[in-house]
Design a protein that fits this description.
Number of strands: 14
CATH class of the largest domain: Alpha Beta
Radius of gyration: 27 Å
Number of domains: 3
Structural class: alpha/beta
Oligomer: single chain
Strand content: 15-25%
Largest sheet: 8 strands, parallel
CATH architecture of the largest domain: Alpha-Beta Barrel
Distance between the termini: 25 Å
C-alpha cells in the first residue's frame, strides 16, 4: 500500500535514536491502521475531538502525541485521554491548566515546551528567555507535569540558513537545561532538523500524502476505471498477438495498459523482431483483437462496481468529469455518455492526441480544456503507465487498483492515493466535500 511504501522511504532517512511521529491529523482511521500495521506506534493529532473519536477505533498500544495548539478549555478532555506527550505547551497559563487536570486524574503528564524561534508572527511559543523561569516554576509548584524537552517549528521559508538557525538555537537552548527530547522537523525540513540534533520528528504529508480539497475537475481513465473491461482486453491482446507470432501474456497487457493500441503493437513488435511493424500488420492485429473482445463481451463489458456512485457524487457537487483514455475502440467510447447518464464534460481518446500514455499529452489536453488550475484537478487511474502520465502532467493522482498488479507498482509511479475499490474512493471524496 502507498502509506507503507512512503513510510519505508521516510525511514531510510531517519537514523537510529530518532523517534518518528506520524502526523495523522485529518487522516481516516484506515490510513492510521495501515501505518500501524507497517510498524509505527507514534501518531500525532491536533484536535481533541478528533483524537477522542479515533482512540476507540485503533489499537491500545498506540502512543498518541498532541501536537496542535491547545486551548485551556480543552485541557480537561485531553488529559482524560492520557496522551503520551503534549508537544505544544506555549504559555504558563496552559501549563497550570495541564498540571491541575493531571492532579485530578492522578497522573504525571509529560510535556514539551514550544519555543518561538521562527521569524513569523503566526508561530506561537515561549520566548527563549522565558524557558528558565518556566522550568523553575514547574520544579517548585507543578508536581504533576514532567517537562521532557522542547519543540519548535522553523520559519516557513526556502532559506536553509534560516531554517538551520531556528533548529540550532532550539538545540542549544535544550542543552542549557539538560532536557532529553528535541521535537523539531516536519515533512519539508526534517533532514535538516536531524542534522541539527532533533531526536523526534513530526511527519505527515510525506507519509499520508497532501490533504486534498474537493477538486473542480476529475479526469477518469476508461478501461479498468469506468468499464470492467481489462480482463477481456488482456485475453484479447494475448490471443491476437500470439496469433501473429508475438508471445504476449495477459500480464503484459496490464503492464502496457494506457498505451494506444498502435503504440502497444509497435513497441512489442520492435522488441520481438527488432524492426518496425508495418501499418498492415498493426491493422490486422488490432482487427483480430477487437473481434475477439466483442465475441467475449457482446461489445459491452459492463462497468466497474461503484463507479457510477462516484461519478454522480461528483456531478451533484458541480465537479467536471472527463474521460481520458488511450482506447480507440469506437463501441466503448461511443457508449460512455449513455452508459453514465451524460455526466461527462468531455472525452479525450487516442483520436485526440499524437502521443498516448505514458506521455502526459492526454492529461495535459484534458486539463487545458477544463479551464482550471492544475491544483484544482485530479486524475483517477488504475494502471502504472496511466499514473506515470498523470504525474508527468503534474496532476494529483488517485489510483484504484482494480487489476492483478501489486499496489507497489502504482506507488512506484507516484500515485498520491491508492484505493482498493471505488467505494473506498467515494468515502474519501465525501471527506473532502
Amino acid at each position: 500500500m502507498l502509506i507503507t511504501y512512503n513510510l519505508n522511504k521516510v525511514r531510510a532517512h531517519i537514523p537510529a535514536g530518532v523517534t518518528l511521529v506520524c502526523v495523522s491529523k485529518f487522516q481516516p482511521v484506515e490510513a492510521i491502521r495501515e501505518a500501524y500495521e507497517a510498524g509505527e506506534r507514534h501518531f500525532g493529532e491536533s484536535r481533541v475531538q478528533e483524537l477522542k473519536a479515533k482512540i476507540p477505533q485503533l489499537p491500545s498500544d498506540i502512543h498518541w502525541h498532541f501536537i496542535g495548539h491547545l486551548q485551556t478549555n480543552k485541557v480537561r478532555d485531553l488529559i482524560k485521554l492520557r496522551p503520551y506527550l503534549i508537544h505544544s505547551v506555549d504559555s504558563q497559563k496552559l501549563l497550570e491548566a495541564i498540571n491541575d487536570e493531571a492532579a485530578k486524574t492522578g497522573i504525571i503528564q509529560d510535556v514539551l515546551l514550544e519555543v518561538h524561534v521562527a521569524r513569523e508572527e503566526t508561530k506561537t511559543g515561549l520566548l527563549p528567555d522565558q524557558i528558565g523561569g518556566i522550568l523553575d516554576l514547574c520544579r517548585d509548584k507543578m508536581q504533576h507535569i514532567r517537562i521532557c524537552g522542547l519543540m519548535c517549528m522553523a520559519t516557513n521559508t526556502d532559506d536553509e540558513a534560516e531554517i538551520r538557525r531556528c533548529f540550532t538555537e532550539t538545540r542549544e537552548l535544550l542543552s542549557s537545561f539538560g532536557g532529553a527530547v528535541l521535537s523539531m522537523g516536519m515533512s519539508e525540513d526534517y533532514p535538516i532538523a536531524i542534522e541539527c540534533g532533533a531526536n523526534m520528528v513530526r511527519i505527515g504529508s510525506s507519509i499520508f500524502g497532501e490533504r486534498k480539497k474537493m477538486p473542480k475537475a476529475v479526469f477518469f481513465d476508461q478501461d479498468g476505471i469506468l468499464y470492467n473491461s481489462m480482463p477481456y482486453h488482456a485475453e484479447s491482446w494475448a490471443y491476437a498477438m500470439t496469433k501473429h507470432g508475438l508471445p504476449y501474456t495477459p500480464e503484459e497487457c496490464y503492464r502496457n495498459e494506457g498505451r494506444t493500441s498502435t503504440g502497444v503493437i509497435k513497441e512489442y513488435f520492435q522488441r520481438i523482431y527488432g524492426k518496425e511493424a508495418t501499418p498492415e500488420i498493426i491493422q490486422a492485429i488490432y482487427a483480430d483483437k477487437t473481434e475477439h473482445f466483442n465475441e467475449m463481451t457482446g461489445g459491452f463489458p459492463g462497468t466497474i462496481p461503484g463507479v457510477s456512485d462516484v461519478l454522480h457524487f461528483l456531478y451533484d457537487h458541480g465537479v467536471q468529469c472527463w474521460v481520458v483514455t488511450g482506447s480507440g475502440q469506437h463501441n466503448l467510447i461511443d457508449a460512455l455518455n449513455e452508459t453514465f447518464d451524460h455526466v461527462f464534460t468531455g472525452i479525450i481518446s487516442s483520436f485526440d492526441v499524437l502521443h498516448g500514455k505514458p506521455d502526459p499529452e492526454p492529461y495535459l489536453k484534458a486539463w487545458s480544456r477544463s479551464g482550471f488550475k492544475k491544483e484544482e484537478c485530479m486524475v483517477v487511474e488504475n494502471a502504472p503507465l496511466g499514473v506515470r502520465a498523470a504525474k508527468a502532467a503534474e496532476l494529483f493522482t488517485c489510483a484504484v487498483n482494480t487489476g492483478p498488479l501489486p499496489d507497489s507498482d502504482l506507488a512506484a509511479e507516484g500515485a498520491d492515493r491508492i484505493f482498493p475499490d471505488m467505494y473506498a474512493l467515494l468515502e474519501w471524496l465525501k471527506s473532502l466535500a
